[in-house]
């Protein structure tokens, strides 16, 4: 089996790393939904003081592990199996990062993800959420509108989430929006503290 490949992950890894460099100092980081692992293998060597813990659903672990095995790094940890609706690791993290997951997860699973994510953060920790978001119910560009319609054609449970709704979910768990970074291709990187 060849390693899976995501062109989107290849395109956005550099801009995401530039923003994360403002925040990542040290400690353990859980990546939720690592996908192919392209972000993990790119980021971990760039942040040597951060122990990067990739995670994925069981059915995606083989592809993820192929990337991790091909690109070892001292700060890159073994991948963890994680289903948002299932059991989470007992470990608490200084950082939690996820890219392009909230529009794939159903709204109830986004709520569960935020709840568990916040429970697994240390008190002074930060969460980083990357992806497309709507603002006040409106798309930020025509590309996002087409993407949202494409998602909903696959499943009505998927779709671009409202930024304000995500901010309110974090606020329920005592986490506030620290920054909202504009990213290429009409994406955002939300930072919660």
Automatic annotation (TrEMBL):
Listed InterPro entries: DUF938, SAM-dependent_MTases_sf
Protein name: Methylase
Organism: Alloalcanivorax balearicus MACL04
């Amino acid at each position: 089996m060849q390693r899976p490949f995501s062109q989107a992950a290849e395109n956005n890894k550099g801009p995401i790393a530039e923003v994360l460099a403002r925040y990542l100092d040290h400690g353990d980081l859980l990546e939720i939904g690592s996908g192919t692992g392209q972000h993990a293998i790119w980021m971990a060597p760039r942040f040597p003081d951060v122990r990067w813990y990739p995670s994925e659903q069981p059915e995606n672990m083989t592809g993820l592990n192929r990337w991790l095995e091909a690109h070892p790094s001292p700060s890159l940890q073994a991948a963890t199996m994680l289903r948002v609706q299932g059991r989470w690791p007992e470990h608490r993290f200084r950082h939690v990062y996820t890219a392009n997951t909230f529009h794939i997860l159903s709204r109830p699973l986004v709520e569960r993800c935020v709840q568990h994510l916040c429970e697994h953060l240390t008190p002074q920790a930060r969460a980083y959420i990357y992806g497309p978001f709507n603002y006040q119910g409106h798309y930020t560009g025509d590309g996002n509108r087409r993407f949202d319609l494409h998602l909903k054609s696959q499943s009505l449970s998927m779709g671009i989430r409202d930024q304000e709704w995500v901010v309110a979910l974090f606020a329920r768990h005592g986490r506030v929006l620290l920054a909202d970074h504009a990213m290429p291709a009409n994406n955002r990187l939300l930072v919660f503290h």
